[in-house]
Amino acid sequence: MAQLVPAEPFDLVIFGGNGDLALRKLLPALYHRDGDRQLSPDSRIIAVGRTPLDRESYVTGVRKALQTALSECLNEARWDDFATRLDYLDFDAGDHRSWGKLEQVLSGHEHKIRAIYMATAPTLFGPIAQGFKVNGLMTEHMRIVLEKPVGHDYLSAHAINDEVGACFDENQTFRIDHYLGKETVQNLLSLRFGNSLFEPLWRREVIDHVQITVAEELGAGNRIEFYDSIGALRDMVQNHLLQLFCLVAMEPPISLDDDAVRDEKLKVLRALKPVTAREVKTNTVRGQYSAGAIAGAAVRGYAQELDAQSRTETFVALKVEVDNWRWSGIPFYLRSGKRLPAKHSEILIQFKPVPHAIFDQAHYPTRPNQLSIMLQPNEGVQLRIMAKEPGPGGFSLKPVSLALSFEETFGIRYPDAYERLLMEVLRGNPALFMRRDEIEAAWQWIDQIVAGWEASRQEVETYVAGSWGPAAAAMLLDRDGRAWETG
Predict the structure, then answer these.
(1) Element (DSSP H or E) covering residue 212
(2) Cis omega before residue 9 (within 30°)?
(3) What is the pLDDT, as a whole number, of residue 185?
(4) Catalytic: which of 152, 178, 240, 344?
(5) Peptide bond into 355 cis (omega under 30)
(6) Residue 376 gets which letter from DSSP?
(7) Cis ω on the peptide bond leading into residue 377 (within 30° of 0)?
(8) How distant is the alpha carbon of residue 425 from its chain centre?
(9) pLDDT category, 433, cuts 50, 70, 90?
(10) What integer best gives the mean pLDDT of the chain?
(11) How many CB atoms lie within 10 A of CB 325?
């Protein structure tokens, strides 16, 4: 089991502290880390929000949220200890009186790590960062965490990075993508660079194509108004899928140092083949879910939930290529959508067929090998190979899996993504976070797809909720003689 190293004393100020992200993800994560004694006794969690609440009401709300979010019952002793850390401050970033109240709360704790978590709209990132600077709240050990999305295009991301960068150095700025904290995503580095088996195979001569799927059962929910302004391409592909893509496609870094890994990811983003306005119709698919059923329960369509007609995509599929020596001519197929049949995230490496089939293909067909890296709901790795079925009567071949389930293999609960990433923030380790140039390079590539959609007026195709997306997504691979392995 990995050693659990306690964090140094800290004050964590969560802006948006009574919002969905804080109550559903951040505070449960901190509760677990506190239960494993990784939070020092004098560390504090200060939630900041616009809703007027006293501390007692806020703590009561957190308790209810934890009971909902956690799979197990609250441990009363652990909860009592955790609750003593919590404080709440109603706050308006544009009101100097609010900054005065925050200064009073933080006064006398300047020796601690002071971390600011921006679980807010990205338009507030710059003003709040500036507020800390002009109100004299900066300390020697400052951190700021920016939730995704950082902006909605390259220009807005660049402006936010400039505003935050005027107050915080790059090594103090943590742009979070919780997928980078998942155990399986980190094991992708181990798989590639900790074993002599796979790296010689990780190239165009051996791999036929790569599929990356991030599927959600849920709809837009209470984020629908915000979601309608960005859509699936900006919400999921610009960060989650491109980060997974970079880890699959990057060259071996010289070490696991912070910038060594991020340098290699940046090279992949810069090597992405542009998707021109002429190519968007053949290499991209946009979809929006209509009414249907998931797990036997009827669900409404996106337009019904929004109560308005919209051209915002809730599903996107892309054919992507990398213009470099390792991957030239090898397609990567990316897709993500809401209201799909299951919550399912997977990276699938499809190897090329054997060069010469010695078995009778009419009776004993062989299938190409596959390496499946599963991120959710069950984290693990599967290598699918061909094996002979036992018994007489010739070579009866069957695909079988060599499987690694992290839960079954290690038999213990490992921290989830937010637990791990919050601790990395407190330790000041930026390796699992996105650098400014990564964010901006990703937006530059996404922006030209958006521009192509607008120039070509590409339609948003409907798909029934509970299906695997519009028919055009299947055709994206079918034209190349391939098919999605899931759905």
Answers:
(1) strand 207-215
(2) no
(3) 83
(4) 240
(5) no
(6) E
(7) yes
(8) 17
(9) very high
(10) 91
(11) 10
